[in-house]
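Pyridine nucleotide-disulfide oxidoreductase domain-containing protein 2
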Amino acid sequence: MAASGRGLCKAVAASPFPAWRGAHSEARGGLKSEYDAVVIGAGHNGLVAAAYLQRLGVNTAVFETRHVIGGAAVTEEIIPEFKFSRASYLLSLLRPQIYTDLELKKHGLRLHLRNPHSFTPMLEEGAGGKVPRSLLLGTDMAENQKQIAQFSQKDAQAFPRYEEFMHCLALAIDPLLDVAPVDMAAFQRGSLLQRIRSLSTLKPLLKAGRILGAQLPRYYEVLTAPITKMLDQWFESEPLKATLATDAVIGAMTSPHTPGSGYVLLHHVMGGLEGTPGAWGYVQGGMGALSDAIAISATTHGASIFTEKTVVKVQVNSEGRVQGVVLEDGTEVRSRAVLSSTSPQITFLKLAPQEWLPEEFVERISQLDTRSPVTKINVAVDRLPSFLAAPNAPGGQPLPHHQCSIHLNCEDTLLLHQAFEDAMDGLPSHRPMIELCIPSSLDPTLAPAGCHVVSLFTQYTPYTLAGGKAWDEQERNAYADRVFDCIEAYAPGFKDSVVGRDVLTPPDLERIFGLPGGNIFHCAMTLDQLYFARPVPLHSGYRCPLQGLYLCGSGAHPGPMEKV
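Structure:
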C-alpha cells in the first residue's frame, strides 16, 4: 500500500524560489489537465514521494489544501516576528538516504543538533540552600552516569548497558523501515514465481533475527510489555524511568502501564541526524525549511506544486483503476497513479469511491484507533525561562539545558499514569506531561533579539470532553493556563515573559492539519497497526484495493518520520 518509486515508475512508465509560491507553478505553464502521477497533500511525506517520482522521470503534480506547503512540518509567523514550527517541531526520523538522494543540504536544509538533549528538573526543596536536582542527558556517557548517580549509583552503572541493549534492538528493526512488509499473500496463494520473488521480503526479518540472537525473548518483551515493566528491570530511580518513559507515550493515548508502549519508545530512539544515532535536532528556520528543501528538490527536476487546491475525489474508470482526481472547483486532473499523503481515513472514506472498495476493508479503516492526547501550545516569550533547578546566566544567554527537550511533571511514572487516567475520564490532565522545547536557543533567526519561541507538546487532553462537551475558547484557555501554572512552578516568572500563544487541541490539529483525531501518527502506533497491518491487515500483498492508488503518509508503513 505504501508508495514505491520504482514500482510506480513502472506503473506509469510512460527554482531558487520557495516552491509553494503560486508564481512558481504558473511559470511552468500552470495547471495541466494530465500528469503521470498526482500526490494529494504537500506534507513532507507527500513532497518526498513527489521528489523521488520526478527524479525517475514521472511527471508529478502535488495538490495542497492550505496556503502553505509542509503539512505538519511547517513554519508559521503566528505572532509578528516570531516564527513557529507550529505542529512538528523536531527532526530525527527522516531516513538518512533521503538527505543524500534529494540533495537537501544543497537545497538549503541546515540542522542544529542538540547536545545535551534531555533535561528533567525536579520540584523539590533544596536542602541547605542548594538548588533542586535535575537530570541532564546527552551524548557523553560519563557525564550521563554522573547525572544519574544523583538519584541512584546502581542506575548509573546500568545505564550504558541499557543504551547498548536498545541500540541493538534499533539496529535490528531499522532495516525493516526501508522495505515493504513481508508479502504473506504471495506465500499463501501466489504462483511459484511470486513465491520466489517474495522471499526477498524475508531478508530484513532474517537479518533482524541474526542481530537479536538469543536475546530475542527479551526484545520481544520490549515490544509487547508496558514500558514500566521493562524499565523496572533496568532501573530503580523514578526520575530516570519517567524521563525515558516519556518517549514511550509521547503523542499516544497510552499510559506507561499500557502493554505495547515500549514500541513507541523504540520508534523514537531509532532515528539519527548527520551520522549520530538517536540524535534529534532543530531545523534552521523552523520545520517549514525542511519542507521547502524537499519541495525545491522536487520542482528543480520538474514537479509542479499547487497550494489552495483541494482534492475532493479520486476518479476511477469502469475497470476499477485510478484515472485521476477532481479538485474542489470541479477541475478534473487525469493521472495513471494517485498517491495520498493524507490519512487512510480521508483517503478511503472520503476521497475514494466506496463502491470500488471491499466492505470489510472500509469497515477496518473506519475502526482505526486515532485517539490523540496532544495539545500543542506555541508560545512567544521576551526572555528565556529560568528554572529553579538551573537558574539563567546573568546575561540571559542560552545555557546547555535550554536546547533540550525539557520534561516537566515527569519526575515519576505515576504522574504520567495519573495524567493519562484524567483523560480517560474525559478531563484534561490536572498535571499534564509537558515537553518544552526552545528552538531559538540554537536558532536565533526565529525570534527578535532577546526573545524566544517556546514549543509545548502537552498531554493528556481528550478529543471530546466529559459529557460529550466540545472544546471551546474558555476550555482551551483554561487548559493553557493550567500548563503555564505548571511551568511557573519550575521556572518562576515564565508567565510574565509570555508575549502571545497559540493553543491547538486535538480538534484544532485535525481541522488545521488534517490529523485524524489530532493524531500525529494518523493512526496509533500500536502492534495491531504496524508493519503489514498498517493501516489495516490486507490479504492482497500490501496493495491498495484500487489499482493505481497508493498511501505515502504516516498512516502507511513505516509510520511517521518526524516529531509533531
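Residues 407 and 556 are 30 Å apart (CA to CA).
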